[in-house]
Write a structure and sequence with these properties.
about 120 residues, alpha+beta, two-stranded antiparallel sheet, 2 strands, about 45% helix, flat
């Protein structure tokens, strides 16, 4: 199991030191989302408590909105028949079609008329 590590995140006008089990790339993505939301509110001159509250509400709204968009897809996927994989491509017997060298008449092997 991964050990918690200490990280710092800036939200609004303050730095917060926290412990997290998230790996570095995941934490950086999460922190960037929070920073983007809170930065858009900073220009409104909010105090830190209001900034944190509105950041939380905007993130919750984004989550709820995304869940609403994904819900119909989840419903469709839950109603699909279970998928059973077919044979691997290298296991499939592919017949090799060779043109016949004994074609007669006006057609060559493959049904294409000879040019005259």
């Amino acid at each position: 199991m991964t050990e918690p590590r200490e990280v710092t995140i800036v939200i609004g006008k303050r730095r917060y030191s926290i412990s997290t089990l998230l790996d570095k790339p995941t934490f950086e993505r999460v922190a960037a989302i929070v920073k983007g939301v809170s930065a858009s509110l900073l220009k409104d001159g909010l105090d830190q408590d209001h900034l944190l509250m509105l950041t939380c509400l905007r993130l919750a709204y984004s989550l709820e909105n995304t869940m609403g968009k994904l819900s119909p897809l989840v419903d469709v996927l839950e109603n699909l028949e279970p998928w059973e994989p077919g044979p691997e491509p290298h296991d499939m017997a592919m017949p090799l079609v060779m043109p016949s060298l004994s074609a007669t008449g006006d057609e060559r092997a493959g049904g294409v008329p000879d040019e005259k």
